[in-house]
Amino acid sequence: MQLNRRVLFVGDGGDVGILKRLLNARDIELDARVRPASVKMPVLLRHLRYFQLATYAVLSRKQYDAVFIWQQYVGLYYFLISIIFPLHRRPCCVYYIIFKSRPKSLAARIKRHLMIRMIHSEYVDKTIFLSQSDALYSEVRPEKVILLSTYTEKSSYIEERLVSESVRLSSDYFSGGTSNRDYSALKHLAERIVDKQFSVACLPKDVARISPFPKNMHIDYNAYDCAFEELILSAKAVILPLENPNVTSGQIVCLRAMQSAKPVFMTRNNFMEEWMPDIAALGFFFMYDELDELSTLLTRLTDGDLQELGHQARDYYLKHFDLESFYRGIADVIETHLLY
């Protein structure tokens, strides 16, 4: 069947198969160029990959009715390349924008300026934000913004490990991630609760910041993908201490935790409620204000409590984080905002 409209999808992630099927049902053809760019890659190599994806989008867009970009840096390079090669402009949406404000950093000020220029440029029609609390959200003209705070992923590795029933617990609490984490707070927590084992997956720069660390705190600075997920599976619960509670971060680790049947303890913030509106009523998801509060709570909960809360987390994940509904929202954005 010859479909009437064609969309180019470029980026470092996303389930293209689901999105393609949903768009085909709407008489829209999707062609995709996806190149994963893990944070374990050297920064320059990762950005080279983003640049290559952006270049491909610019050179190929004349064959399509619209462009959908999955990664803000790919969008930024797409904008910069388009200034030099402005031909064949097509409606374009960039998913998603996350900006961490560092007022004293010259690099951050330059990045802020370029991101705002990119969003307001003629080469980008819409940008998707995950939270209204993002540092750039209030600076962007309303007609350029789509707020899509829903997000979900499903790890096939976690599902396979759960089915095998071969997971062995090796720590009490796991914490991991590369952006906006306060691992010094986790270190202080481990020093308070000396009879519990803490597992951390972070970057080498994070290790340098918290060294020396206590004996009950195991650090892994080379755990990515399946190795990262195995650390989640082998813990009783997940802790996410945030450096800045106003910066959107941690959702993917939350998803992995809930899928793995682990309760989550997270610094109180103003973005998780946008993503999970009923979060205040969820027994397995704890938002804490102070370290003393978290320490007291963890001391009070038994292993049996954590296991039961983990079951609740898994049930909630299976019920609420449906891939079809999430990508249906992306398909709506493409059809409504790019192919109008």
Observed structural traits:
43% helix, Rossmann fold, 340 residues, 12 strands, 13 helices, six-stranded parallel beta sheet, alpha/beta
Task: List unreliable stretches of 5+ residues.
Answer: none
What integer is the average pLDDT? Answer: 94
Net shape: globular
The domain count comes to 2
Examine the secondary-structure arrangement and name the CATH architecture of the largest domain: 3-Layer(aba) Sandwich
The largest β sheet comes out as:
6 strands, parallel
Q: Name the structural class.
A: alpha/beta
Molecular structure report:
The protein is of the alpha/beta class. The chain has two domains: 5-152 and 323-338, Glycogen Phosphorylase B (Rossmann fold), CATH 3.40.50; 156-320, Rossmann fold, CATH 3.40.50. It has helices spanning 16-24, 43-60, 72-84, 106-120, 156-164, 183-192, 204-210, 226-233, 251-259, 272-275, 291-300, 303-320, 323-338; strands spanning 5-11, 28-34, 66-70, 92-97, 126-129, 145-147, 171-176, 198-201, 217-220, 235-240, 264-267, 285-288. The strands form two sheets. A six-stranded parallel sheet has the order 2-1-3-4-5-6, with helices on both faces. Strands 9-8-7-10-11-12 form a six-stranded parallel sheet, with helices on both faces.
